[in-house]
Amino acid sequence: MSAAVPIARRTAGGDAAGRPSKVPTPRRPGHTILGVIIIAVMLFPLYWMLNVSLQPAGNASATPWLPLDLSFDGYRTALAEQGGNLVTSLVVSLGAVVFSLLIAAPAAYALAHFRFGKWVVVFLFAVLTTQMVPGIVVANALYSAYSDLGLLNTYAGLILADSAAGIPFSIILMRAFMMSIPASIVEAAYVDGAGPVRAFVSVVLPISRNALITSALFTFLFAWGDFLFALTLTTSESMRPITLGLYSYIGGFVSDWSPIMATAVLSSLPAIALLVLAQRYVAAGVTGGAVKS
């Protein structure tokens, strides 16, 4: 009689211990439809931007809903007039990534594994404070300093300015990740004869690949989308990032929107490509320091 009870429970949808098994909740089509509608509304501006860029006549008010009569004249005009600005943005963004990682990676490792006592909290508080300062205040201060140092309208000046946003973020992110690295791994490198620099380069950095890629991606996006520093620290047309070039491209009266939208599409491609390629590294890098090994 007692053996019949568990059998009856299992046949009624329970497990071997007599607990009721979880029945998967059926998907509701209403939620799926709502999600599709929300995504369509969010992506519609991107679609319309692409649609207008492919029109032979760039009047946005007369643009059809579907780009049936395709034309790439807008892209040819955009590359001819804004190609130099795209190159400037690419050089500045990649330079900001390299400079930020060169500063932030050793600083994050030192804060994570070296003993500084209470000074670590003070330094991290100072890093967080730099993130709270409005950008316009920093830009005005940099303009006076750059004018005295001769850094206006230079790649180095824009790289240093854009790194001001990437370095604090990278330090905080990579420190959280490097704190999860067991100290025994670094100590094993010391036993094998490696010094602090060799252990950092050969052991810590390869393990921190996800955090490095995440920091590099966000720093690139910061620099690529920068407008305030570009507007304040450049005065010549030969040294204009794409954000400032697109801003100056739009006049008070615009008769042809195709080149403008084509420029916007071209300026969006690097960010979209990097996000697609690095999304799995970003997810691992952001959550890597959440659990300490």
TrEMBL record:
Does Transmembrane helix appear among the keywords? yes
Provide the topology term for how it sits in the membrane.
Multi-pass membrane protein
Q: Which CDD domains match?
A: TM_PBP2 (cd06261)
Q: What ranges does the record list as Low complexity composition bias?
A: 8-19
Pfam families listed in its UniProt record: BPD_transp_1
What residue stretches are annotated with the ABC transmembrane type-1 domain?
86-278
Q: Which PROSITE patterns match?
A: ABC_TM1
Question: Is Membrane set as a keyword in this record?
Answer: yes
Primary site of residence: membrane
Regions that span the bilayer = 32-50, 90-112, 119-143, 155-174, 211-231, 257-278
Q: One GO CC annotation, please?
A: plasma membrane
The protein's UniProt keywords, in alphabetical order, are: Cell membrane, Membrane, Transmembrane, Transmembrane helix, Transport
Q: Where in the cell is it found?
A: Cell membrane
Q: Biological process GO terms, please?
A: transmembrane transport
Q: List the InterPro entries hit by this protein, alphabetically.
A: BP-dep_ABC_trans_perm, MetI-like, MetI-like_sf
Name the segments for region: Disordered.
1-26
Per the record, the similarity remark reads: Belongs to the binding-protein-dependent transport system permease family.
Q: What is this protein called?
A: Trehalose transport system permease protein SugB
UniProt lineage:
Bacteria, Bacillati, Actinomycetota, Actinomycetes, Micrococcales
